[in-house]
């Protein structure tokens, strides 16, 4: 009876499951196709006349496969995966300092805000000479080796012996390693008595929490309007972006929808009472605002919440999922497309190959759309209308409601590139080292009121750039250069909030937002 019952169940299951599209021949054929690549690699490894690095062959093969899919499906090698994951995690375990290796000695640039070193009183300019009795001053010691001595398990202790200029004896600090935040909110401060400003550099695991804390602090300071700066933000985690949008939209408003290869649609709605549903909102974007940044801008624009200010965004409307490959590497594979609440896709075309896709910035520069909104190409077939009657377009990026042209002056752009790339950091560190006691004694308000960059420092910077084979026209852009050097100084003394506050002085988009915010 049992045997007969089992046979009957088998027959019924066989009838219920449709294998008609998967004949034995097609299954074997599919397996053979999959086996072909593995067999070829085995032939090369065991039969090829010369020794070959099989790992590199596999990496090249995987990259080649993904390149043929779309521009954003990418392979992450094992050696890059750990650091990439850490940058998106929102924190790491260590003592929490940024440093240079100066004359074979670890020189602290600054203790990281909220980290263990800041809590015990380590300062910028300190030299870390010993960690648990082991000398860290050595011509052959690498930054990786230094990091190994300073990082460790959470709550473990490390005894640091530090030289501080002007102090005759070495200082000893007992530092308990802990979680050091890698902040994704660069700045949060008041632009005007009623207007708060928040800048987000990426969407990591901690971004929503950082954003929410910043938003509540600004509300306490009297902010009834918010400028949300997403310029040069490449994106990140989708969930963090949707939670931020949720703070601005009423319950049950559609934030976005995604559609996979099978046509399955998943919708995301606002689910709670947000902390800024009534206030006036401005979202700043540019040609480097991508992915999750565009989700935020698109969701708010399509729900008639706020004003989008800037230039057309990057145009990435593909959703990726990270998948481990079993050897410490991973693949970030496109699994769906996302659409804004009105149903528009903002993914720019990629059917002419990756090279043309990634050269889109040059095309925008050539066709003039970085300096004129009239040069932005739109298709009537991709026109959508928001509930409030605003016309918006799909087909490649979010087009702002208020256009602000890019400053295309080459010399000024070069200075901005130097600022954002960290080129000025080492020079400013040397300036601070000349009188570390004075600079460390300043509070931020004193710093703001003082002209920190003298003509002498400007000339020193000119000499520095000459040594580095980089020429700067100081005469024409003296005020901008002074501001950028002062901002870099503020970064090392007071952190990113101070840096952004100084850099934003005279910023075209910021000035436009302040102008719009004062209009009734």
From TrEMBL:
Q: Keywords of this protein's UniProt record, alphabetized?
A: Hydrolase, Protease, Serine protease
List the NCBIfam families.
Answer: prc
**Which InterPro entries would you find in this protein's record?**
ClpP/crotonase-like_dom_sf, PDZ, PDZ_sf, Peptidase_S41A, Tail-specific_protease
Which species is listed as the source?
Salinimicrobium catena
Tell me the ranges covered by the PDZ domain, including all copies: 81-151
Per the UniProt entry, what are the Gene Ontology biological process annotations, in alphabetical order?
proteolysis; signal transduction
Its Gene Ontology cellular component terms are: outer membrane-bounded periplasmic space
Any single GO molecular-function term of the entry would be:
serine-type peptidase activity
**Family designation:** Belongs to the peptidase S41A family.
Q: Transmembrane region positions?
A: none
Quote the protein name from its UniProt record. Carboxyl-terminal processing protease
Ribosomal protein as UniProt keyword? no
């Amino acid at each position: 009876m049992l045997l007969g019952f089992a046979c009957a169940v088998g027959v019924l299951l066989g009838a219920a499951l449709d294998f008609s599209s998967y004949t034995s021949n097609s299954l074997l054929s599919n397996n053979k196709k999959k086996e072909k690549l593995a067999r070829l690699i085995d032939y090369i490894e065991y039969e090829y006349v010369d020794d070959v690095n099989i790992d590199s062959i596999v990496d090249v093969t995987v990259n080649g496969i993904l390149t043929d899919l779309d521009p954003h499906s990418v392979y992450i090698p094992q050696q890059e995966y750990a650091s990439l994951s850490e940058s998106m995690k929102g924190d790491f375990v260590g003592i929490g300092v940024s440093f240079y290796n100066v004359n074979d000695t670890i020189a602290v640039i600054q203790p990281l805000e909220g980290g263990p070193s800041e809590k015990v009183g380590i300062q910028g300019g300190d030299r870390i000479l010993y960690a648990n009795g082991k000398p860290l001053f050595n011509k052959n010691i690498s930054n990786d080796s230094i990091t190994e001595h300073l990082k460790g398990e959470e709550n473990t202790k490390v005894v640091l012996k530090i030289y501080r200029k002007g102090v005759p004896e070495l200082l000893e600090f007992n530092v308990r390693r802990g979680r050091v935040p890698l902040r994704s909110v660069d700045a949060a401060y008041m632009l005007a008595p009623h207007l708060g400003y928040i800048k987000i550099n990426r969407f990591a695991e901690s971004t929503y929490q950082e954003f929410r804390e910043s938003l509540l602090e600004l509300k306490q300071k009297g902010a009834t309007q918010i400028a949300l700066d997403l310029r040069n933000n490449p994106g990140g985690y989708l969930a963090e972006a949707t939670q931020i949008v949720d703070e601005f939209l009423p319950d049950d408003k559609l934030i976005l929808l995604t559609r996979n290869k099978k046509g399955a649609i998943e919708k995301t709605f606002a689910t709670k009472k947000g902390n800024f549903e009534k206030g006036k909102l401005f979202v700043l974007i540019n040609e480097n605002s991508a992915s999750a940044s565009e989700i935020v801008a698109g969701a708010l624009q399509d729900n008639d919440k706020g004003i989008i200010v800037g230039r057309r965004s990057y145009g990435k409307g593909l959703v990726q999922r990270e998948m481990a490959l079993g050897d410490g590497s991973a693949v970030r594979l496109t699994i769906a497309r996302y659409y804004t609440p009105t149903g528009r896709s903002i993914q720019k075309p990629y059917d002419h190959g990756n090279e043309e896709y990634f050269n889109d910035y040059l095309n925008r520069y050539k066709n003039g759309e970085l300096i004129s909104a009239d040069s932005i190409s739109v298709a009537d077939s991709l026109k959508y209308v928001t509930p409030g009657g605003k016309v918006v377009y799909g087909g490649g990026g979010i087009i702002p409601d208020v256009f602000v042209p890019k400053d295309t002056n080459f010399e000024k752009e070069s200075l901005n590139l130097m600022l954002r790339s960290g080129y000025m950091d080492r020079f400013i560190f040397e300036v601070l080292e000349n009188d570390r006691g004075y600079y460390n004694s300043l509070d931020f308000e004193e710093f703001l009121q003082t002209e920190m960059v003298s003509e002498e420092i400007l000339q020193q910077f000119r000499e520095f750039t000459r040594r580095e084979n980089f020429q700067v026209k100081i005469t024409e852009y003296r005020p901008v250069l002074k501001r950028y050097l002062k901002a870099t100084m503020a970064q090392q003394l007071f952190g990113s909030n101070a840096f952004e506050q100084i850099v934003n002085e005279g910023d075209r988009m910021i000035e436009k937002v302040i102008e719009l915010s004062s209009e009734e």
